[in-house]
Amino acid sequence: MCEAHFTVAALYCFARFPDFEAYQAPLTELCDQNGIKGTLLLAAEGLNGTVAGTQSGIAALIAFIEAIPALREQNIELKYSTASQMPFNRMKVRLKKEIVTMGVEGIDPLQSVGAYVQPEDWNALIDDENTILIDTRNDYEYAIGTFKGAIDPKTKTFREFPQWVEDHRGDLEGKKIAMFCTGGIRCEKATAFVKGLGFDDVYHLKGGILKYLEDMPAEDTRWEGECFVFDERVSVGHGLVEGDVQLCRACRNPVTPEGKLSQFYEEGISCDSCYHERSDADRARYAERQRQVLLAKERGAKQHIGD
């Protein structure tokens, strides 16, 4: 029997979108009608999201989004990949203050943003000894993969990134500042923020890591490890193939194959990241939840065989 594949679309668009609230209901209805799951965020500054469904369903959604008057004049950053199983549990269309939360007032990528660098030109930029390469993602994302030589700001959330920049302004003086993130959206705001501090030589990877892994041959890569994605695939590698990293169901942190060898790893119950932060009572609760998950899977398998 052929394994079903789902089309995954990651997209964002900064735009003047004053009537964004009016699109929550029609987008929800369209996704429900087409069996699409994932998350779309709508705000006055634009749209952001990752969704999955059939190829035809995703095509219908993208056509609808591209026809929205406030968005159709902008370049929607859009990347496709595939998943062997549906990578989301439900569909959410949410209204937000920001489509990516930085928490700094007045940051507008439509007014000022770093220079875009295409994946094929990225290696030359980051190989330059005068370039400082900054990973704008969070620490758990950095831990499973990043570009060779990239700085880890050790942030837990994107809200912490502006303070890290303020604390390291002296290190950035006189340098080319190159930044990257998963799909490009965080760098839109990160580079706008850094430019607002008076730095001019600011760059970011067009389409983010995902576009680089899609376009760059593995033999020419500067990427090391896998790229964390915010769905049940957990990570992807070159060619956007599904990776080997799994989620710890207790703390939602990624666990590498090496991490699964730890004495503190137990599927569905604990890992290195959370073992010492959880109590025995917590682990007992997670163990019961894991037991129920396995029972549900077993019942589902038996039902499928019966069909």
From TrEMBL:
<dbReference type="Pfam" id="PF17773">
    <property type="entry name" value="UPF0176_N"/>
</dbReference>
<protein>
    <recommendedName>
        <fullName>tRNA uridine(34) hydroxylase</fullName>
        <ecNumber>1.14.-.-</ecNumber>
    </recommendedName>
</protein>
<dbReference type="InterPro" id="IPR001763">
    <property type="entry name" value="Rhodanese-like_dom"/>
</dbReference>
<keyword id="KW-0560">Oxidoreductase</keyword>
<comment type="function">
    <text>Catalyzes oxygen-dependent 5-hydroxyuridine (ho5U) modification at position 34 in tRNAs.</text>
</comment>
<dbReference type="GO" id="GO:0016705">
    <property type="term" value="F:oxidoreductase activity, acting on paired donors, with incorporation or reduction of molecular oxygen"/>
</dbReference>
<keyword id="KW-0819">tRNA processing</keyword>
<dbReference type="InterPro" id="IPR036873">
    <property type="entry name" value="Rhodanese-like_dom_sf"/>
</dbReference>
<dbReference type="Pfam" id="PF00581">
    <property type="entry name" value="Rhodanese"/>
</dbReference>
<dbReference type="InterPro" id="IPR020936">
    <property type="entry name" value="TrhO"/>
</dbReference>
<comment type="similarity">
    <text>Belongs to the TrhO family.</text>
</comment>
<feature type="domain" description="Rhodanese">
    <location>
        <begin position="127"/>
        <end position="221"/>
    </location>
</feature>
<dbReference type="InterPro" id="IPR040503">
    <property type="entry name" value="TRHO_N"/>
</dbReference>
<dbReference type="GO" id="GO:0006400">
    <property type="term" value="P:tRNA modification"/>
</dbReference>
